[in-house]
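User: Okay, second chain of the day. Same drill as before: sequence in, structure tokens out.
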Amino acid sequence: MKDAAELCQGLLRKAKSDRIAMEASLGAQAFDSACFHAQQLTEKCLKAFLAYRQVGFPYTHNLTKLIEIAAGIDAAFRALLPTVTPLTPYAVELRYDDSFWPTQQVAEEARTSALLVCQCVLDRLPPDIRKAAE
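Assistant: Same drill. Structure tokens below.
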């Protein structure tokens, strides 16, 4: 079984992959995919933080729920609630909605939100753990 640091690093590596896919999708003007990967990046970063702190987390795409759990450890996460709320639907509901075609501005806002949450998480992890996200 993986220890907390290994699980955290694994999730951060997955988050890095989502960050790369998000940037590539933005560059290719695949804005719906960019929004999806922004949500996934955010989700994996939050779960990485919880894993590192050895706090169980539900297998959910609901970023509000993950923020609430993280805020129980570090109250600063509570300020991120308005940042993550628009991202949650990008995980599943809007991924399969054939009428969801976000604009470049929406995708860039999703990117900004995801990177903000990711940085908040990374700032709370030791340097040796953060390397997995670089």
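Residues 4-27 form the longest helix (24 residues).

User: Thanks, on to the next one.
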